[in-house]
């Protein structure tokens, strides 16, 4: 039988509510420290949340331009490609895929899947990551719409921006 426990700090393991105020104090009567930044402040976002925001921003830009064609697509973020895709890329002597596009089926919308870790590795810096994410999203949407990426988004670069030395 699995052990029962509660994630609610006001109840004990038995499920009986604890007595007391719910705020814990140390032996000197001081309460625990709060977070340094309030939730929602960009610095308090995790790397995953910041990456998801980049994908969402790119998807929104394309939705504004293409409307229902892109609106019905599902945009997703995965940490890495599945093992099968990695083995296939290795066998063909290619780099791991940065994303995947899956055409829709009867009840499923077309899907655009962006792989976070390979993109972070290829980008190499936080400054290059936003343009790379956008370009990959544009390429995957272009694949689903069967048109060139330059037509999907005129701002598509296909290559890294110039670095100032």
Annotate the secondary structure layout.
Elements: H1 47-66, H2 68-71, E1 74-78, H3 83-91, E2 99-102, E3 111-115, H4 116-123, H5 129-145, H6 149-152
Parallel strand pairs: 1-3
Antiparallel strand pairs: 2-3
Helix pairs in contact: 1-5
Structural account:
This protein is mainly α and 165 residues long. Helix content is 38%, strand content 8%. The chain contains 6 helices and 3 strands; from the N terminus they run ααβαββααα. Strands 1-3-2 form a 3-stranded mixed sheet. The chain is elongated and about 65 Å long. It starts with 46 loop residues before the first helix and ends in a 13-residue tail after the last helix. Residues 1-16 have low confidence and may be disordered.
